[in-house]
Amino acid sequence: MTDFPRVRLRRLRRTEALRALVRENQVNVSDLIYPMFIVEGKKIKEEITSMPGIFRHSPDQLPLEIEEIAGLKIPAVLLFGIPENKDETGSSAYHPDGVIQQAIRVIKKSVPELIVITDVCLCEYTSHGHCGVITNGEIDNDKTLPLLSETALSHVESGADIIAPSDMMDGRVKTIREVLDGKGFQHIPILSYAAKYVSAFYGPFREAAGSTPQSGDRRAYQMDPPNVREALREVEQDIAEGADIVMVKPALAYLDVIRQVRDTFNHPLAAYNVSGEYSMIKAAAQRGWIDEKQAILETLTAIKRAGADIILTYHAREFARWLRNE
Ligand code: PBG
To answer: How far is Cα 50 from Cα 278, in angstroms, rounded to an integer?
Structure first.
């Protein structure tokens, strides 16, 4: 007898205490990474128009921010740089006194235990806005690799704890691993943006970071949205090259990819709840069209339920504040 009225699934939904007892997935602050935009200069704190509540900070403004973030028990930040100067080869990405290198030193001085992850890519630093150097109109994979590993090395030398390459060049995990190991940084993990898709949901980020390609798009290096077997190959490849944590990005339109990566591999899995996903909730909430807090909780929970261990999200701070005040 497994039938109604003996079986009543509603019995365990009757009170919040019962629901909490049988809840299968829960988002913890300790799962979250908070992305931050660091702009070169002094005394700058400017809100990003398309991302309400998210700011560009100059390095000198960071101690105050970082203390609050660490106080909320958010374990890690991911840094993106907005340099003063851009050129063909993105040289301010690997300048020893570049904006990210400065920011890392400031953060490590104010809250040493906060995990500092750096995004390694050239698109914010190149005049053309692509993630690699250009030869004869094409993004040159192999010429880009040494620049990425030089960038990664300079971040680690400045104190970064984890390196996160997001460029989608083939072989970058291997090249970065070799360079770090050669310089005595065998202990520094690589979080690779393994399955990163071409996406309209990066729109607000590109405004925030000023990294829109001047011509063309990123289809020749980021993944084609219809593909999922290819995502498994990308992840397999990055793991073979030495990635410690793998990522699927974006998150919401790719929950099936997160699930398949989770079921196929045993590595820690991160998912990036990207800028467009953040901005859509903010825009709808500002108009009173959805309940902001519930929408955010539901979104983050869905990403966990799909199988992510770690979530990179611009909601990290507000989420942690709500939990603290509960
Ligand atoms: C850099 C990079 C991008 C994002 C993270 N790293 C932009 C892009 O690939 O165009 C997007 C993050 C977001 O939308 O929140 N390559």
So the answer is: 10
Active site residue 108: no
Q: At what angle do helices 255-264 and 229-241 cross, to 10 degrees?
A: 50
For 107-153, write each residue's pLDDT tens digit: 999 999 999 999 999 999 999 999 999 999 999 999 999 999 999 99
Please indicate, yes or no, whether the overall pTM of this predicted structure exceeds 0.85.
yes
Q: How far apart (Å, rounded) are the C-alpha atoms in residues 37 and 55?
A: 7
Of the listed 86, 196, 282, 304, which one is catalytic?
Answer: 196
What does the pLDDT look like over 205-228, one tens digit per residue? Answer: 999 998 899 989 999 999 999 999
- The secondary structure of residue 254, as a DSSP letter, is G
**Atom of ligand 1 lying closest to residue 196 CA:** 9
Cis preceding linkage at 5, omega within 30: yes
